[in-house]
Write a structure and sequence with these properties.
With 117 residues, this protein is of the alpha/beta class. It contains 4 helices and 5 strands; from the N terminus they run αβαβββαβα.
Length: 117
């Protein structure tokens, strides 16, 4: 009986180690697959770039604006909740504007309590 319990404990330990390695592997893959290096700019700089017609397209989620300049550089900036004047200006400058909902965290991140970046 003691030998049987030892085998069960050994199998259980191996399963736990494999699960931990699997979770770490998924975390690393998820982190690097969704990561884009974007330069953080100020709201004032955004207004200048829009005025100079250097902005190609933007995606707005809540008060975060992710954008791409016409030269290919990507940026991010926090914008005020009421950005109707900015949006109107971007429309007049023919900047492609996309709105997205705040993404839900991955189910496994919720279980483990890992916060999105």
């Amino acid at each position: 009986m003691r030998r049987f319990c030892g085998k069960i404990f050994k199998v259980f330990s191996i399963i736990c180690v494999v699960l931990v390695v699997f979770i770490i592997l998924i975390s690393v893959i998820d982190y690097y697959s969704t990561r884009v290096d974007r330069q953080e700019i100020t709201y004032t700089k955004l207004l200048q770039e829009v005025d100079q017609q250097k902005v190609d397209r933007v995606t707005i989620t809540d008060n975060l604006l992710l954008g791409k300049l016409k030269d290919g550089k990507e940026f991010k900036v926090m914008i005020p909740r009421d950005s109707s004047s900015l949006i109107n200006t971007m429309q007049k400058k023919n900047i492609e504007i996309k709105f997205e909902q705040t993404p839900e965290p991955s189910w496994w991140r919720s279980i483990l309590g890992i916060k999105e970046e």
